[in-house]
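Margin note from the TA: students keep mixing up input and output lines. Inputs are the sequences; the output is the structure of the whole complex. Example:
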Amino acid sequence: MLSTEKVEWWKAIVSSINDGILVIDHEGIVRLINPEYTRITGVREEEIIGKPLHQLRPGAKLPNTLKDGKCRVGVYRKEGNREYVVDMAPIILEGEIIGAVSVCKSLTEVHKLTHELKKKKQKIEQLQRAIDSLYQAKYTFDQIIGKEGGLKQTIQIAERAAETDLPVLIMGESGTGKELFAQAIHNRSNRRKRPFIPVNCAAIPPALLESELFGYEEGSFTHAKKGGKIGLFELANNGTIFLDEVGDMPFELQAKLLRVLQEQKIRRVGGMEEKEINIRIIAATNRDLEQLVFKKLFRQDLFYRLNVIRIEIPPLRERKEDIPKLIKTFLRSSLRNILIGEEVMKFLQLYDWPGNVRELKNAIDYAVCMAEGGEIQLCHLPKWISELEVEPKQTNRTLREVIEEAERKLIRETLNRFGNGIEEKKKAAQALGISLATLYNKIKKYHIDPNEDRF
Ligand SMILES: Nc1ncnc2c1ncn2[C@@H]1O[C@H](COP(=O)(O)OP(=O)(O)O)[C@@H](O)[C@H]1O
Ligand SMILES: [Mg+2]
């Protein structure tokens, strides 16, 4: 027999085990249970110790183990509303069965957790659907004007691109419809029900771009949010990410983007784990990427990766045949019954539209707003269009007006040349011989909007 001290010692060990334990001796008398056994089965020590097991638990299989010496694993038991599984084994000493032990695990908790997990899963699915519907692209190929005209070939290429998952690079001046094409491609592809996530690489401060794109883990930097933050790549999973103004992406970040493209894996800032993602990339830029590669401002390897299907959208001045149809469409969407005179129509076709379709759309919206009668006249167009570019009426204009118009034009051209990022604006200001603050003031004064009007 064991000494009392040893028995206490063994009892303490058994008590500390996280599974329910019950021990019977060779006669089937219960000798020991632990608190976890009581918790799982509801049977207390004083009810059972010293009594034959089969008396208190008629369904118990442990006495069988005593007889045949066989282990039993994962036996399911249900007593009232308590469910548990039991493993059973004989206790053998010097070749003889001197007792048997059962080890029980509660199923009630497993069920509870399974139920909770199911609820959480449903919630996640709901949220995923909400994300998908929140980030839908709204434009389709039907809305792109120019199919029969100047965009015929461009649209053909884009439609082919939509049938694949290949990276697309859209090049074109500001306002030519790059985002419109990106959305149309996504909406035609079989990712159409999943998110379309636009990211303007020029508008997010370079220091934030990485964490915006990749997300971050909790505590990865001073102002990091609790619980971390999901990145745009993760948000775009199974959908399309539209990297607008990709030419303005900081050089160091380009290497990370390349890695995502190559491996289709991301790692959050400050995170250890890599996550597989499945995204389609459409990039766009109004800058000459080849020139940037040549100047070592854009990584060549990334350029080749993005430049798989290349879509070049010609500026509006090179496809003036599309202008009348664009104007008619914009007029129709204004929901006001307004006509446009032949003369104005011709005039609008002469203008060069440095801001492309966006500028044309804004000019029509403006004219619709200004036209009091049912027809748009020359005088209803924005001044800088009606007066400067096509028919310079030098006679009755003040010196100030002429200077302001020239100033506006030069600023626009310079911004088009350098780009829209903060660094580029600094360079533009330098080229113009003015401070960055003055440049910003003038951009505001002349309503120059080189950044996109988001959909
Ligand atoms: N071919 C086109 N047909 C109809 N609308 C167009 C076309 N191209 C551009 N637009 C309109 O012009 C505006 C600017 O287009 P956007 O795609 O934002 O240009 P980008 O991204 O190249 O600066 C949007 O309102 C867009 O709907
Ligand atoms: Mg754009």
